């Protein structure tokens, strides 16, 4: 018998698929993100019986502002994903394909390194849109006279630039970048790792299909939330702060600890998980569908033969 190896088809993702997938996921999960921001910026000077819950926050927003208020800041959220996520997914995917052109798995430490670098770049690029997103989501809880009333994300960027200066657009950039590094490590590298482990050790159950994508992305969501929540709280506070309210990241950390203790850094953890897990799952399911249907097809030698 001839020992002829059969080529194996590999489908690679295009660099911009991550940004499109993240934007699609944001359309579905934006109300949860808005509620999370309200938790993180809520005053701590309230009695235990008056502390807001996820349900009470949702009901209050809908009653006072209407159902569509849950989508306040959607344009900024989409702009953020199209800048932040396109950058981090794009750099990660291109670098990964440079290291492994045939699509074979690369070591975990390389994935973590690539994800960290990609996240840092994405966090910096996405900071202006992220700041506008936080402000627009938080606007409805402020007194009418104090609201910023940005019409959309672009209007918000222009007004901040004109009224507060270009540097204000990067308020919280250090926290946003740190969070993006942890988020990208928790999402990009860990999704690849979980998917690799499922396909390698449970081939009779998992293959390159939606079941595997759902399973790997669910595990990824839990890891990503735990890694990023403290940084997310600090980033949100700094972006939503009044001018000169916090002198530095260290000052913000100190003030938050004085107000709420160590648990203050995990304020809004439940809504953050409820929001981030579906967002992570939808992002990777959308990404994989884009890859499978519109990705780059190539044939490589099947190393198992």
TrEMBL record:
UniProt main location, coarse: membrane
Ranges: Solcar repeats: 9-98, 110-197, 208-293
Compartments, as annotated in UniProt: Membrane
Pfam family, one: Mito_carr
GO cellular component, one term: membrane
Keyword Membrane annotated: yes
Highest taxon listed in the record's lineage: Eukaryota
Membrane topology, from the record: Multi-pass membrane protein
PANTHER family: MITOCHONDRIAL DICARBOXYLATE CARRIER-RELATED
Family: Belongs to the mitochondrial carrier (TC 2.A.29) family.
Name under which the protein is recorded: Mitochondrial dicarboxylate carrier
Gene source species: Dermatophagoides farinae (American house dust mite)
């Amino acid at each position: 018998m001839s020992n002829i190896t059969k080529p194996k088809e590999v489908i690679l993702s295009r660099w911009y698929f991550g940004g499109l997938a993240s934007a699609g996921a944001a359309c579905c999960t934006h109300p949860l993100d808005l509620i999370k921001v309200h938790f993180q910026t809520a005053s701590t000077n309230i009695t235990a019986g008056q502390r807001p819950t996820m349900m009470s926050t949702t009901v209050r927003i809908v009653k006072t502002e209407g159902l569509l208020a849950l989508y306040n800041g959607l344009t900024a959220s989409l702009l953020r994903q199209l800048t932040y996520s396109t950058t981090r997914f794009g750099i990660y995917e291109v670098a990964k394909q440079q290291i492994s052109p045939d699509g074979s798995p690369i070591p975990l430490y390389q994935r973590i390194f690539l994800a960290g670098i990609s996240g840092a770049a994405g966090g910096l690029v996405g900071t202006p849109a992220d700041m506008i997103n936080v402000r627009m989501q938080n606007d409805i809880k402020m007194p009418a006279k104090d609201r910023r009333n940005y019409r959309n994300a672009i209007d918000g960027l222009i007004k901040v630039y004109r009224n507060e200066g270009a540097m204000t657009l990067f308020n919280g950039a250090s926290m946003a970048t740190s969070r993006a590094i942890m988020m990208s490590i928790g999402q990009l590298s860990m999704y690849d790792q979980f998917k690799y482990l499922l396909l390698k050790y449970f081939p009779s159950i998992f293959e390159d299909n939606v079941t595997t994508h759902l399973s790997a992305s669910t595990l990824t969501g839990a890891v990503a939330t735990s890694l990023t929540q403290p940084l997310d709280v600090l980033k949100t506070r700094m972006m939503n702060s009044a001018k000169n309210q916090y002198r530095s990241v260290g000052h913000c950390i100190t003030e938050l600890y004085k107000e709420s203790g160590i648990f203050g850094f995990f304020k809004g953890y439940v809504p953050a998980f409820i929001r981030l897990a579906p967002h992570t799952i939808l992002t990777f399911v959308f990404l994989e569908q884009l890859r499978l249907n519109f990705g780059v097809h190539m044939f490589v030698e099947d190393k198992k033969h």
